[in-house]
Design a protein that fits this description.
The chain is an all-alpha fold. The protein has 11 helices and no strands.
């Protein structure tokens, strides 16, 4: 089975869509100034700032358009410049590159979560909560982008009520903050896909394009959390920038 990222990229290329021909590729400065997504309204997630950092970095990467090999160092420099410290025994250019590559080539499935659970010693309860995200990412269809945003809001609400250890609950909330803001970013990246009147024959196109980025970002956050909350940003932004770089290179 193709990974969701490959599926997204294939959908873009096979349909002949490009930033130069269909105006679906947003000018991110304008998009960020104009788009106010419902997912940002009224959240009580204390880690919402991590999602904001994620999107700030992605806007920088869209404007800078770095080569893929530069992204790990740019991600590490970004968190430092914003006043956050990271565990240097966990994160360096090589380890961030590994997280980026794994995140971009992994399906967000229950099987993958179980694999990570063995690697990072997740509790069964924590895995069940992450399985909610895997069910969301692997649903058969979505009505429109509002449906995507609303479902992520519902998952976040359930995470806020979850009965886990403080560490694992913090990890859940950091993950959903990245996922929610990533959805904002990728929906604004492909603004035409936010049209609720998208016809059924085109739904596979917008679904694949948007979810290719969100899945990689969220997987990067999950893996990066081994190094603490700031690791969610490092992993998430590296994966997201890696996806964006490849999309840029192939459009």
């Amino acid at each position: 089975m193709k990974t969701l990222f490959k599926f997204m990229l294939s959908a873009v290329l096979l349909t002949g869509l490009s930033c130069n021909t269909d105006n679906s590729y947003a000018d991110m400065d304008q998009a960020n100034a104009k788009i106010v997504m419902a997912s940002k309204a009224g959240t009580s997630n204390p880690f919402d700032y991590l999602g904001e950092l994620h999107n700030n970095f992605m806007t920088d990467m869209h404007n800078l358009k770095p080569s893929k090999d530069k992204i790990p160092d740019l991600a590490l420099n970004f968190v430092t410049e914003n006043g956050y410290e990271y565990d240097t025994s966990v994160f360096n250019s090589n380890t961030v590159s590994e997280i980026m590559n794994e995140s971009m080539t992994s399906e967000f499935t229950e099987e993958k979560i179980d694999e990570l659970g063995k690697r990072f010693q997740y509790s069964d309860e924590y895995k069940k909560e992450l399985h909610k995200l895997s069910s969301f990412f692997n649903a058969d269809s979505y009505e429109n982008t509002n449906d995507i945003v609303n479902q992520l809001n519902e998952i976040e609400a359930s995470y806020l009520q979850s009965k886990l250890s403080e560490k694992e609950k913090d990890q859940l909330l950091a993950t959903i903050a990245i996922a929610r803001h990533s959805a904002d970013y990728w929906i604004s990246f492909y603004p035409n896909d936010s049209n609720s009147n998208t016809v059924a024959s085109n739904r596979i196109r917008w679904w694949a394009r948007i979810f290719g980025g969100i899945v990689a970002d969220t997987m990067g956050a999950v893996i990066g959390l081994a190094g603490g909350p700031v690791g969610a940003v490092i992993g998430g932004v590296a994966a997201s920038a890696g996806v964006q770089t490849l999309v840029d290179d192939n459009l």
